[in-house]
Amino acid sequence: MPNFLDFEKPIAELEGKVEELRHLTAGDDGSPINIEEEVAKLEDKADRLLRQTYARLSSWQKVQVARHPDRPHFLRYAARLFDDFTPLAGDRAYAEDQALVGGLGRFRGHSVVVLGQEKGADTEGRLRHNFGMARPEGYRKARRLMELASRFGIPVVTFVDTSGAYPGVGAEERGQAEAIARCIETSLSIKVPVISVIIGEGGSGGAIALASANSVYMLEHAIYSVISPEGCASILWRSADHAQEAAEALRLTAQDLLQLHVIDGVVNEPLGGAHRQPDDVILRVGDQIEAALRELLPLEGGVLRARRREKYLAMGKNGLA
Length: 321
What we know:
This protein has helices at residues 9-22, 36-55, 59-66, 74-81, 123-128, 136-152, 169-173, 176-189, 204-211, 229-236, 243-250, 254-259, 278-296, 301-318; strands at residues 83-87, 100-107, 110-117, 156-162, 194-203, 215-219, 223-225, 265-267. By secondary structure, it is of the alpha/beta class.
């Protein structure tokens, strides 16, 4: 059974009852019990409740879904979608940053450079990947790989899933802001298709560094914002207790951002979120990437770069119309 979020408790209770009934094979007197009809009723009720709940998620509830511990992370997408994925390490200046993973691979017949923020699937993985919060060397590695892609005419595919760039003292001392800015500059300058998918959290400049793309897509319950709801609440209300209000004000959901023309499309998730059917949602993302590549590959490099720049220059004017 999946890990349930707070707002999913009624669903959890129903699904728990279904599991209990499935394990009942005989009554107290040893006679067999026919529970199929009762199980079917409970499953139908649980399914209706799940549909009703996910049809009216608040912004804060979407934040919780985007952060679900069982949600598939970048390495799972890489393993499923890209053949012969070969990670390339290091920024050639300081160190290797495992919060941001990148390399070469084959995607449905096309060579691609793949970049993604990896949060880690368990405690050991989260510590190794620093919860997906990259340091300057991670963004310098991303820049190096983008330049490599441009040199050899290879499309770039990025996966965004981070609460933000790592804010530690060491990262600031090594030029975190400069590294992010240079990464964005490179992404806007290269003459190859750049496609980005926000699969979980897209937080602050740490996300934009990988999402300055020709085509940007979001999973249905992903989030994308200039700051986390907790950080916003701490600034505006001097307390993270107002995170729910901040989430509503930030307009950070995929549906909001599509309306504001910040993103180019929304990839639907299975009922109940990506964590319930991860393989299904990974294939949906793959289909969206394939469609975007089909549209972008015929375009000349200068056109790709010009359109990418125009897109972001126009965003402030068109996005709030």
